[in-house]
Amino acid sequence: MDPFTIPIIADAIALHLDLTDLTQCVLVCKTWHRVFSRSLWASINLDNSFSDYMYGPMDDDDELVSPVEPLPTPPDVPAKTSRGTNAMPKRQASLAQFTARLRRIKRVMVDRCIKSNKRRDPHPSTSMVELGKSVSDESTEAISHPIPLPQFTEAFTTGFESNGQHVRHVQVTLPDLLPHILRYTPNLSSLFIQVDIGSEWSAISKLAENTHIRLTSLEIIALTLPYHWHAIIAKFEHLESLRLVNQHTPTSIEDLIRSVWRCRQLRRLRLVCPIRADVAGPFDSSAGASSSMRCFTESLIKQIEPLRALIDLDLRFKDTASLQDDFFLPFLKLASNVKSLYPPNLTRAQSPHFVQAIETYCRQIEVIDFTYLSYLTDADIAAVVKACSRDSMRELLLTGSTVGAETMAAIAECQSQSMEKLSIEHSQSPVPSASIQSVLASCTRLREFKAGSQGWKGQVRLDAADIIRAPWACHQHLEYLAVCVVGCSTPSLQNAVFDQLAQLTRLKSLDLSETLNETQKDVNERGGSLVWTLDSGMTKLASLTQMEYLWLLSGHFDLGEREREWINQHWPNLFKSAGVW
């Protein structure tokens, strides 16, 4: 992004924001502005999310839709930039539009890039501080700039001596700042921290011992773990959300359990780490594991009190093939009321135990994510779907997994009245067209159905001959449909497909992309394509008045001028398309 100077940003905040909501933010901004020389604020980068909003496809010769009075160019920022000599007035106008948008925002996040000589990472670390009181769930905006570490520490102290009590959420990748955070942010409730070496955990330990700060959300990304890491985490008894990402240090199931079993208010638990099988522990998977070890495992499970508040469980462990077949059992017992489950990649031997654990402890699951779990077969996934309570599952994500007729039949039979979101994209095995039709014809509350989108060469195709067999039961709820329709070889089949699509009156996104780079021989083998012309039945889709996205990628037809005019007339909300123009 092109640079702005902090005086423009500061003045814009002071002039355009509602000071009753962000008074403290403005005070802190002005305090920091007085501390630093102007040169330290020379480069202000707006967050990447503003890229399309600020510039979009605008070229230097484009005219602004709503011209505004340009702001004066600061003397230390040249008007000529990489975008041309005429870019500065447009950036100033865009900045004015941006500040006008900030009027509706109740929360502001300041993203500071820290530069420190002690860090081995060549990339600058980041510390995010949310300023002001959060009074709604409206979106947050970010402003970032690079400043040296000593000056940042001084500014942090100066700015938060009187305003730190309003800070609720902090993101820091430099543990040296934690003492300052503890001192000046007594109402801190959410912390994200990244640590590189085990010794840096001492800062986290001090935070855990601080009785005045009650964290409800903690996210730690660590390269290594100290031997007593689980004892440190266990001290955060008020946690509602915990995410632990560990790259290199294998840990045991027992240590993971010890770290969280006291957190009675825990609602979300996400563990992404390598797992080891302890020879002396209860989860030994070696060939010499004795029956006494099994008894010890069962006794440990009986002693664990379920975390009844836990509803979101993410167990994306690494290297689970060497573990005992029921290594996940303590976690599922802990999460007896879990609603969202992200299981690890199970082996064929572990899969039956997982299904049995679901039937025993977690039958009320609403969301399961099997994305890219290569070990599970079609029969394994179908067994999990059947193990859950009837009509309890709302979302089933099977992208990149092995999906087939058994899974689709289980969904249609057991979860047809509750399923709202189903994704079978990039399936590793062919999915029969009749099975897809059975799901669409039985799932009454389905809102999203993704079965291979945007021209991906997959094995999921819906034949027109199957579409006409029964009406889709999801016509009152379906908003997102992505499937490759084939077999439209006759005008009657063309009309039948358009009739079926015309019933989806709430549809907002339609992706009927064909496989890219197909030869004419491939097209002939799979049957005719759906022809998008006014004469072939396209006019029946006038009922889809809420359409926003349309993908028709194909190398075998080109939408005519009449069809494009018809789309503009009947789909006024359409703002993104591919293969149409």
TrEMBL record:
Domain of life, source organism: Eukaryota
Domain F-box, residue spans: 13-46
Classification via InterPro entries: F-box-like_dom_sf (IPR036047), F-box_dom (IPR001810), LRR_dom_sf (IPR032675)
Gene3D superfamilies: 1.20.1280.50, Ribonuclease Inhibitor (3.80.10.10)
Alphabetized Pfam families for the sequence: F-box-like (PF12937)
Signal peptide limits: none
Official protein name in the record: F-box domain-containing protein
